[in-house]
From TrEMBL:
Keywords, alphabetical: Amino-acid biosynthesis, Lyase, Pyridoxal phosphate, Threonine biosynthesis
Family in the record: Belongs to the threonine synthase family.
Domain Tryptophan synthase beta chain-like PALP: 96-368
Catalytic function, reaction form: O-phospho-L-homoserine + H2O = L-threonine + phosphate
Pfam families: PALP, Thr_synth_N
Protein name, per record: Threonine synthase
N6-(pyridoxal phosphate)lysine PTM sites in chain numbering: 107
Ranges where the Threonine synthase N-terminal domain occurs: 2-79
GO molecular-function term, one example from the UniProt record: threonine synthase activity
NCBIfam families: thrC (TIGR00260)
SUPFAM superfamilies listed in its UniProt record: Tryptophan synthase beta subunit-like PLP-dependent enzymes (SSF53686)
Length: 429
């Protein structure tokens, strides 16, 4: 499989090159040259397949012959080492729980898959290690740290803003050791992000083989389509149209859902639910793509002013706004509305939604008014414990600490404090 740059000013590359480079040389995102729908028989018999078998069928064309089938199957098995329950929250509305992985956020799947692909590509290169450099506002860093822990040939350097991530998130970043290093930046998330961007452009760091691990990387982005197949498998017997609502920030998750639809998965409609960072909802209203600086909210993993994957979505619809709007809606919600929804869901159904899932729920409820006979699914992208500072006071409850979190919370934090790009460079060496 070849991948082209969406800026159309860089050579086409293989899957391996796209994974190692992350971004094309013209700064465009990579996109697969050909997308071949899966056979109807696959969907007819999907309920007889395991999650691993489904994932293998969905992803294999994107990897091609660059990873042997047996190895790809092992990578998938290690990636999907936990459950993806579909929980009925109220009549006709389901929560697709993506938070049962090692760091209790949906990014575990993409991070685990990407790390193992990189390890495979590096297996014969004793000398040239890759360094994954990533800036995090909280959730990404933990998933990347855990996903890459102990993976041969890959060093991971995570930059996070000092004092701006939750205690649990900080422990997830700073306690693992081995090939994972945490840099505590004196600044805000944007400062971390700026340093990372600068490092990628810095010729003097070329020997470090820097790569990114956010959803611009195809190996982190594409495996996210698995979730939609798993939910379909569970709900198929009800024989109703499916509407999915994704709490969206960089739009990687929902973009992977649209890819699943391109492969033939029968999805009636997508909702991209956002917080007040509403660049996409505004675009759907007035046709103007006008990104704004991000605003801080209680659903902070979605505080993105210029969603990087939106360009991939536009590519899939060939910039045909009419066709796009038929399949896709996007609605934005304030923190007050989000808190109100969390309370209402808990009161009416006893279900604990964290702020991102609650935003997804709100967008879903709105869209379902237009789809009489449909079933709605919102993606619950993090465990409530990861946002306990919001969830506990809002619902007046105390959450038990899950084992995944207990295992890091008492470990000692190890980080290196930096306050300038020069210090980052010295650290990388
Ligand atoms: C990253 C993240 C999102 C947003 O996902 P995108 O793919 O960037 O749209 C939503 N919820 C949580 C908890 C996240 O960590």
């Amino acid at each position: 499989m070849k991948y082209y740059s969406l800026n159309h000013n860089a050579p086409k590359v293989s899957f391996q090159e796209a994974v190692i480079q992350g971004l094309a040389s013209d700064k465009g995102l990579y996109f697969p040259e050909i997308i071949t729908p899966l056979n109807a028989s696959f969907f007819d018999t999907i309920e007889n397949l395991s999650n691993e078998e489904i994932a293998f069928e969905a992803i294999k064309q994107f990897v091609g012959d660059e990873i042997p089938e047996t190895v790809l199957k092992e990578i998938i098995a290690e990636t999907l080492c936990f459950d993806f329950p579909v929980v009925e929250v109220e009549k006709g509305i389901y929560s697709l729980e993506l938070f049962h992985g090692p760091t209790m956020a949906f990014k575990d799947v993409g991070a685990r898959f990407m790390s193992r692909c990189l390890a495979y590509f590096n297996k014969d290169k004793a000398e040239s290690k890759n360094t994954v450099l990533v800036a995090t506002s909280g959730d990404t860093g933990g998933a990347v740290a855990s996903g890459f822990l102990g993976v041969d040939g890959v060093d991971v350097v995570i930059l996070y803003p000092s004092g701006k991530v939750s205690d649990i998130q900080e422990k997830q970043l700073t306690t693992l050791g081995q090939n994972i290093k945490a840099l505590e930046v004196d600044g805000v998330f944007d400062d971390c992000q700026d340093m990372v961007k600068k490092a990628f452009l810095d010729e003097s760091l070329a020997h470090k083989n820097l790569t990114s691990a956010n959803s611009i990387n195809i190996a982190r982005w594409l495996p996210q389509m698995f979730y939609f197949f798993f939910a379909y498998k569970t709900l198929k017997s009800q024989n109703k149209p499916l509407v999915f609502s994704c709490p969206s920030g960089n739009f990687g998750n929902i973009c992977a859902g649209i890819m699943a639809k391109k492969l033939g998965l029968p999805i009636e409609h997508f909702v991209a639910s956002t917080n007040v960072n509403d660049t996409v909802p505004r675009f759907l209203e007035n046709g103007k793509y006008d990104p704004k600086p991000s605003k801080a909210t209680i659903s902070n993993a979605m505080d993105v002013g210029n969603p990087s994957n939106f360009i991939r979505i536009q590519e899939m619809y060939q910039n045909d706004l009419k066709a796009f709007k038929k399949d896709f809606s996007s609605y934005s919600y304030t923190d007050e509305e989000t808190l109100e929804a969390m309370k209402q869901i808990y009161k009416a159904n006893g279900y604990i939604a964290e702020p991102h899932g609650a935003v997804g729920y709100l967008g879903l409820k709105k869209e379902l008014q237009k789809h009489n006979n449909a079933i709605g699914i919102f993606l619950e992208t993090a465990h409530p414990i990861k946002f306990l500072d919001v969830v506990e006071p809002a619902l007046g409850i105390t959450l038990p600490i899950p084992t995944q979190i207990k295992s890091v919370i008492n470990e000692e934090k190890v980080s290196v404090k930096i306050s300038s790009y020069e210090e980052l460079k010295d650290f990388l060496g």
